[in-house]
Prior knowledge:
Blueprint: E1 14-17, H1 27-43, E2 46-49, H2 61-74, E3 81-82, E4 89-90, H3 102-114, E5 118-121, H4 125-137, H5 153-161, E6 167-170, E7 176-181, E8 185-190, E9 198-201, H6 209-219, E10 224-228, H7 235-244, E11 251-255, E12 258-259, H8 275-281, H9 285-293, H10 308-314, E13 325-326, H11 329-342, H12 345-361, H13 371-374, H14 378-382, H15 391-395, H16 407-410, H17 417-434, H18 441-455, H19 459-471, H20 479-486, H21 488-503
Parallel strand pairs: 1-2, 10-11, 12-13
Antiparallel strand pairs: 3-4, 5-6, 6-9, 7-8
The structure holds one RNA strand.
Amino acid sequence: MTDEPLSGSAAGIRVRIAPSPTGPLHVGTARTALFNYLFARHLGGTFILRLEDTDVARSSIAYEKDILDGLHWLGLSWDEGPDVAGGPDRGPYGPYRQMQRLDRYRAAADQLLAQDRAYPCFCSPEELEADRKAAEAVREAPRYVGRCASLGQAERSARAAEGRRPVIRFRVGEGIVAFDDLVRGRVEIDTANLGGDFVILRADGTPLYHFTVVVDDAAMRISHVIRGEDHLSNTPKHILLFGALGEPAPRFAHLPLILNPDRSKMSKRKSQTAVSDYQEQGFVPEAFVNFLALLGWSPGTEDEIMPLSEIEERFELERVQKGGAVFDRERLEWMNGQWIRRLEAEELIERLRPFLEAELQAGRIDRMPDDEDLRPLVPVIQERLPTLGTIGELIGFLFVDDLAVEPSLLVPKRWDAATTREALTAVRAVVSGLGTVSFEADELEPPIRALAEERGWKAGDLFMAIRVAATGRTAAPPLFDTLVALGPARTLDRLDAAIAALATVGPTPGE
RNA sequence: GCCCCCAUCGUCUAGAGGCCUAGGACGCCACCCUUUCAAGGUGGAGAUCAGGGGUUCGAAUCCCCUUGGGGGCACCA
Length: 511
């Protein structure tokens, strides 16, 4: 096997992401897709999407849709393969769904069978299970014992006559398989540690992963296989198959794994692994992709916030980390905030709409805000959204008909109910005196500050009481912008409601 | 159990023999700004570079061992 050094040209650079539609798009798959995409785009190569759907029992069109939608959402465009779930695919090496390529695996298996590089195995699941148990008992690595490796034609016929349907196993043989991994350097593995001859075709004739991946990578002229480190130990199997099939092996690059906080391989049990979950929570794709790119790769400078286009320009496999990386959600949220703050106002409004609709659906707001409602709010919300999904708790109170306010919250820490009631009553008078025309932040603040001064109240305390009355919360966007957004009528209504609520808080001293 | 891979602040990382009394970012803690919450600014705590041997005038950087962690060993992908 001769490895051509990587020339600067794009000639022949073909990489692929090959997800299996047996679950929603996984963060790890997304990261692998991203790195393949970056590698291809940086070098002007071709990025291919292939669906590995041979596990029919677990595959579904719903997952296929989730995966394709997720990759599109992240902005990772591909040059060959299907674009929509269940839809047609494009590219000169199709079909790109493995279940539509069964004849090719069958043909490849026949070729190996004809050359005796593979053979039918009639061992029953029970026999295999017993072998496994036996190996375990003597504390040895489980491996296929080779019971059917040297069956003669007569014996095969006899077993077939018993009604046994054979699987097809590939002969692993002896020797050392070595390859130069683009991120790990030279890796050598003795074939004795591969677990024996492995199955390439099930008894029902459908092919298994290790086989399909090689047949397809060869057929699709894949030049570089960039995938998770969990495949490193399996790579010799693939190299052996390429050789047996008479095909040149691609170059390999094994990426570090994305980890749970406890440093085990990221899993659904311990982490949120579905990309769609992050989308639903209001992470923006710019941030998600930026974050993923920095999990295992760094530009070598202190730049962190980078758009995909810049990452494409700067990406190099040589700068990929070897050690696994913990998925740090806090850092993701920070990065998401960075990207939200960089959004144009109209763009932010656009992206917020589905989240506001969700609030409406859930009954947490009574009216869907329109662009006119939102536009003036952008400056105050933009720097307060860690995720788009928090929009409801941030400004939901503006679009609620009857605000439920916890009466005890109305009373500032240093005040009692009576003072609060008195203060809000005074504020009400000021506000109603201003009228509709002057209802702007600049007009509201001075008289209310003056009121505080005149009565000897700390402005902060007074503002807090008003804030809770108007929003139901102690933490909210800037008070006067909030009141303006609420409008004079509803501001007065809420002050009235708060004043009334305070009457029920308890006996007020001095009355 | 066997094989393979990995190892710099809690986390993501910079570092490719002297520029390192190890830099940045997240998180954390102060302070500033400030009507709350954020955002932003400034500063701080935080890594004897897993440990031990080498090599070298000199090692976070090279080699070996140990330890630790992870991954793989299916008629899953």
